[in-house]
Amino acid sequence: MRAATVERWRADRLDRRVREVRERARHLPAEADPDMALQHNTWDDVEIEEEQRTRAEAEVRSQHRAPPAVAEACVREAALRWDAHYLQNIRNYHDRKYLHNEFPPLRAPLGKAVILETGCGVGNTLLPLLAAHSAVRLVGCDLSPFAVRCVNERLEREGLAARGRAFVWDIAAPPPVDQLQPHMLQADLVLAVFTLSAISPDRLGTAFSNLYDSLRPGGRLLIRDYGRLDSKQLKFCRAPNGRLGGEDGLEWYCRGDGTTVVFFTLDAILALATQSGFEVEDLRYDRRLMVNRAQHTRLYRVWVVAVLRKPMDNGKASKHTTFTSRRLPHACVRLWGLATETRRARHSMLALVFTVLVSRMAAPYCIQTLRRAALSFRA
Ligand SMILES: C[S@@+](CC[C@H](N)C(=O)[O-])C[C@H]1O[C@@H](n2cnc3c(N)ncnc32)[C@H](O)[C@@H]1O
C-alpha cells in the first residue's frame, strides 16, 4: 500500500474510534442495598448521600484560611511550581481519549478547524486530538515553560509539528504579541480541561475574557473541570493551610506541591461565562461514584462540563474587555447626559453635532474644489 493510502486509512480508523460514545448507563438504584455498589468500580450520575453532604458542607465552611502571604506566593510562583510539578510527575500523565464523550462539538467532523488548547500541560489532550483528526490545526498554551517544551518535543517526535505547536501564555494576562498569529484569535474551538481550576478566583474573569477574545464569532469554549464537593476538595479541607480563599462555588485550595485548585459550582461558571459575553449551550455536573471493592470505600467524584458559545454578532460586551469596547459608549452617553442638563447647553450640543455632521459631509467637496483650483492654477 502507498504511504498516503496507509495514512488516510489510519486517520479514518482513528476518526471512527473518536466518534464512538460511551453510554452513561450504569445507574445505582435508589433503594439498592450497600453491597450492590460493590458489584462495579464506577456508577454514573450518583449524587452524594444527604448525610455525607451535610458533613462535607460543614467541613468546607469551618476550615481556616491560610495567611494571605501563602496565597500571594502561590500566584507569584505559579509558573515555577507547575514546572516543578511536571518534572516530578511527567510519567503519571496519560493521554485523554474520552473528551469526545463529553463534548458533542468534538464528535462533529472538524475538517480544518483551528483549536486552541489552554493549559495544555504536556500534551495529553492536544496530541491525541491531532492524531485523531487528520486536518485540524492545534495550538496549545500553558503557563509552564517546561510543559510547553515537552509538547513541542513530542510533536516533533510524532511527526505532528506541521499542524501543532505550543507556546507559553498565562491566560489571565494579555497574550504574548510575538507568539500571536491571526488564526489564533479566530479559533473555532478553545479547550480548557482542568485549566481554569488552576487559576486564582480573582483572575478568572480576565481569563474568561481572553478565551472569549480568542474565538471567532460562533466558536465554542469547552470546559471540563473540578466540581464543588468533589472528593478531592474534601481531602484539601483537612490539610492545614489548605484553603487559600475564594467564595462559595469558587473555593480555592493549595496542593501539597504548591500548585492550586478551585472547585466550581455551575452558578459560578454561569456568572463568569455570561459576564464575558458567552451564550451557554450546555452546563452540567458529571457525577460518578468510584468504589474500591477491596477496601469497601466510596469516592464521590464531581466535575463541571460546559459548552459556551461566542455569539455570532459578537454583540454582547464583556465585563472584562478593553476600555474602548466597554467604557467608551458609556462615557459618550454620560457626557451627553451632562451636557444636555440645561436648555442652553442642549442647544449648543445640537449645534455642535450639526456642524460636525455638515463639515464631514462637505469636506470631500471642499477638497475636490481646492484640488481643481490648484490644477487650473498650475496649468
Ligand atoms: C491540572 S493541569 C491540566 C493539564 C491538562 N489540561 C490536562 O488535562 O492534562 C493545569 C494546567 O494549567 C496550567 N496553568 C495554570 N495556570 C495557568 C494560566 N494562568 N495560564 C495557562 N495555563 C495555566 C498548568 O501549568 C497546568 O499545565
TrEMBL record:
GO BP annotations listed: methylation
Residues of the Methyltransferase type domain: 116-221
SUPFAM superfamilies: S-adenosyl-L-methionine-dependent methyltransferases
Sorted UniProt keywords: Methyltransferase, Transferase
Gene3D superfamilies: Vaccinia Virus protein VP39 (3.40.50.150)
GO MF entries: RNA methyltransferase activity; S-adenosylmethionine-dependent methyltransferase activity
Highest taxon of source: Eukaryota
Entry annotated with the keyword Mitochondrion: no
Family, per entry: Belongs to the methyltransferase superfamily. METL family.
Entry protein name: Methyltransferase type 12 domain-containing protein
Protein's organism: Prymnesium parvum (Toxic golden alga)
